[in-house]
Amino acid sequence: MKKGLSYWLIYLALPICILAVWEGFQIAGKLKPYTMPPPMTIVETTLDYIKNGKLWENIGISFIRVLKGFGAGLAAGFVIGILSALFPKFEAFTELVIQILRPIPPIAWIPLAILWFGIGEESKVFIIFLGAFFPIFLNTLEGVRNIDSRYFELAQVYEVPKPLLIWQIVIPGALPSIMTGIRLGVGNAWVCVVAAEMIGAVSGVGHMLSDGRSLSRPDIVILGMLIVGVVGKIMDDILRLINKKLITWI
Amino acid sequence: MGNIIEIKGLNKIFRSKENDVQALENIDLSIEEGSFVSIIGGSGCGKSTLLRIIGGLETEYEGEYLFDNAPVKGPSREKGFIFQDHRLLPWLTVEGNIRFSLPKDKKKDDELIRKNLELVGLTGFERSFPRQLSGGMAQRVAIARALANKPRILLLDEPFGALDAITRMNLQEQILKIWHEEKITMIIVTHDIDEAVYLGGTVVVMTPRPGRIKRIQKVDLGTPRRRTGTQFTIARDEIYKEFFSDAEIPIEYNI
């Protein structure tokens, strides 16, 4: 669809309707401020949080946690994924452990993480790492496996050395799949940071959520949820853009 | 010149759990350095398998195969191989694809890349990506890539099979020109009788189940070669008879 005026009208119609219905309930007097505040209260709370600096502080703290955990997950998932795909012995060596750990949701690790690392940074980064690792690992593995084997035959004819083979066939060949893994990994990382911060933290967006609940301030809870949603969307947009710039040949 | 390829009593069997298939039976073939040989046969006659053995892509067989008087351990740059698909890496430019194939000390040799692209008539396409090229152009890049590696022999495995008739004829001309200029031994595998007769100074006719050489036929079309005229028609009919009895020859071939 072309992005003309009619596109933007359709694009924004649903959110405007939701806001209108929400405001309608307020005007009809159906909303109780301690369970569901009107839209304007959310706007006011947002402005308050911007003024006292808590908005950026909490986003920044959560964002840095995501970055650390995701970075570690990316590095480990990428390296182990490539090694597993290229060396069957290495895959056999790691397979059982990975297969058993994979179905365990990262959130289930929170109690153990708190026992091991306390409620400091390490426990959150660890949970996020787990969330990011598996999709990146699995998609890297699949990506390398699905590379057309005819390219490897070609490399044989031209006596291409192993390092060049990895750099010029394996990595670009698996890149579309790796990028899918990265997008899923980033999504998971946000889920994990919120969950980890809700359970044991004194800062971050997840902490805003649990703080809002204990203060009976649904406006803070909703603001926290919106932050997670908006930041998540922006990150996915950025990744999609990187994907487009990186993979020009498809 | 001596023989660059000596094959004696070569057998190739594809073994699987269910059954063994004899792909090649008792193949004897000598190819003189600098010659142009066509191998022709129907599907399943083992012609591609034979070419893959010559190229070192298949190394399990019984019998003797010597390339330049030495056994072959695997594929190498001196045995250039043109596949049916162009097999260019889609993420590299035309230039990048050729550079990728070159030995380490030649990687920075832009002149070598330029010269070989010129040879196949693709000057100016250095920065193009494979998806921007037509099928014929991509196959020409593949030929330039093989030539840039200075092969002793060029093996072409139904290289023009996927192209339209006009493009195919153009590429046949080009490959003949390259053969004249570069003096590389060339072997082409094809199922197109006209192509086999037009390109090959020698045509090797193979028959299937098991893959065997039925006949080795010298072809002399004079210089330059012509696609029309008596010499071509006679040579083509000779090969045609190997596949069909006289009664079966359709009218257009009976002129």
**Largest β sheet strand count, sense and barrel closure of chain A:** none
Distance between the termini of chain B: 38 Å
CATH class of the largest domain in chain A: Mainly Alpha
Multimer state: heterodimer
CATH architectural grouping of chain B: 3-Layer(aba) Sandwich
From N to C, what is the helix and strand string of chain B? EEEHEEEHHHEHEHEEH
What's the tally of helices of chain B? 7
Portion of residues in beta strands of chain B equals 25-35%
By DSSP, the count of extended strands of chain B is: 10
Any idea what the radius of gyration of chain A is? 23 Å
Helix content of chain A: over 70%
> What fold name goes in the CATH topology slot of the largest domain in chain A?
MetI-like fold
Low-confidence stretches of chain B: none
CATH architectural category of the largest domain in chain A: Orthogonal Bundle
CATH superfamily grouping of the largest domain in chain A: MetI-like
CATH class of chain B: Alpha Beta
Q: Strand pairing plus helix content of chain B: what structural class?
A: alpha/beta
